[in-house]
Write a structure and sequence with these properties.
- Two copies of one chain form a homodimer.
- By secondary structure, chain A is α+β, with helices and mostly antiparallel strands.
- The first copy, chain A, has two domains: 165 residues, CofE-like (60s Ribosomal Protein L30, Chain: A, 2-Layer Sandwich), CATH 3.30.1330.100; 73 residues, CofE-like fold (Alpha-Beta Complex), CATH 3.90.1660.10.
- Helix content of chain A is 30%, strand content 21%.
- Chain A is globular and about 50 Å long.
- At the A-B interface, strand 3, strand 8, strand 10 and helix 6 of A face strand 3, strand 8, strand 10 and helix 6 of B.
Chain lengths: 249, 249
């Protein structure tokens, strides 16, 4: 895919890339797309030179050692600042994701150095738009996962997670199913959208690689793809654990 | 693969399954294997009828609503109990993993109902043994990832993670690399072994599916496979964040 610029039609870019690869979308396909290209296409870029840091941002900059203008954007994008130490700000993004810098990222943003990319305004809506755009252009609506890379408590290293979903249930419930020996499994849910994001991130590499989208074929069954059509729980919000249920806040 | 029993030679079972599929191992292949079959082959099964719960286990059972004998095993397998609420015990396993029930699992264990599977004694050693066994039988040593499914703070649903690794660096460092536009990326590490575990878990399904191993081909470059050979950081322990570095304990 070419470099994405503000105002680009992402569905058209993906459709053109698929044509170039000789690939036709099929029902049950999952398209995982890096949030960075979604943010860029949606114009979610901010030039730090135009940001005026508030006193709270100055204080956050003092505690973290980060640019006060970046801190101002982190505060604007967050519901809460959860942890701060030199070099690290863990925030609860206004959409509920817990991640470093409220998901604001500097790398791979075109233009002068101090331009940063915010997360898409509503990544589930971005996923739905891309899905609908691909449907209009190809006649097939793939499931879409918008992915980011998040660090985690307890474990080192970031992994791909889904921040926007359309046409796919992000949680697969296993409760009530029988295991190999006929026992009913204890209640357990698998975060398949996050696992898809992790699998795709292996192929994207980190942002330097320039692979902004991965097509996953053969995993999602057609009947599940159809069931998820327009379903309110086919959205990344279903992956957020309500703070009152969370034992680690 | 057939059902695995205590004392089985896992390398032989995997090699036989590969022969049956007409697959020959190649340098750079990664074999992801569910910890459950590793635990079974290593005989890490405990019949709850033979467990005597201590007073601490009785107390943990009272707080969690779980079987006191299971609680006794959780205490034996843990360094610390981090959180308890009805239906949930989050423990720090003696190897450092933070997970529900210290990784002890009831589903898919053959025999009478009250038999549970503990995690392998040393999953990195299990991964090395399986790798070496496959090398002896096939002439090629694949990287091996032993995976489990863990819940997480902040996000709903469990995802595949690696608890044992051999022949692969579980963390891929991106620091110092340039992005598409020539900026040097901020320091970031990708937990590739966990992403491999998540990708494989999508194909294994949860334990009910009976797919205990997944072969990943074409991802790991041969020079990386060779570099990781016998390297002390090619182990799952590298993924554990030391508690003093963790902002969420």
């Amino acid at each position: 895919m070419p470099r994405v610029r503000p105002g680009d039609d992402l569905a058209e870019l993906v459709a053109a890339a698929l044509r170039q690869l000789g690939l036709q979308l099929q029902l049950g396909d999952v398209l995982v797309v890096a949030h960075k290209v979604v943010s860029k296409a949606e114009g979610r870029l901010v030039d730090l030179r135009e940001v005026r840091p508030s006193p709270q941002a100055q204080e956050l900059a003092r505690r973290s050692g980060k640019d006060p203008r970046l801190c101002e954007l982190i505060l604007q994008e967050s519901r809460a600042i959860l942890r701060v130490r030199p070099g690290l700000i863990v925030a609860e993004h206004r959409l509920g994701f817990v991640c470093a810098n409220a998901g604001i990222d500097r790398s791979n943003v075109a233009g002068a150095e101090p331009v940063v990319a915010l997360l898409p305004e509503d990544p589930d809506a971005s996923a739905r738009r891309l899905r609908y755009g691909l449907y209009c252009k190809t006649g097939v609506a793939p499931a879409v996962v918008v992915c980011d890379s998040h660090g985690r408590p307890f474990r080192r290293g970031a992994v791909g997670v889904s921040i926007g979903v359309a046409g796919l249930f992000p949680l697969l419930s296993e409760s009530g199913r029988e295991d190999l020996y006929g026992y009913v499994l204890q209640h357990t849910e698998e975060a398949v959208a996050d696992e898809l994001a992790s699998a795709a991130t292996l192929l994207m590499g980190q942002s330097a690689e320039g692979v902004p989208a991965v097509l996953v074929r053969g995993l999602l069954e057609v009947r599940d793809a159809v069931r998820a059509w327009g379903h309110p729980e086919a959205a990344a919000g279903a992956l957020l654990r309500p703070p009152e249920e969370d034992l680690f806040r």
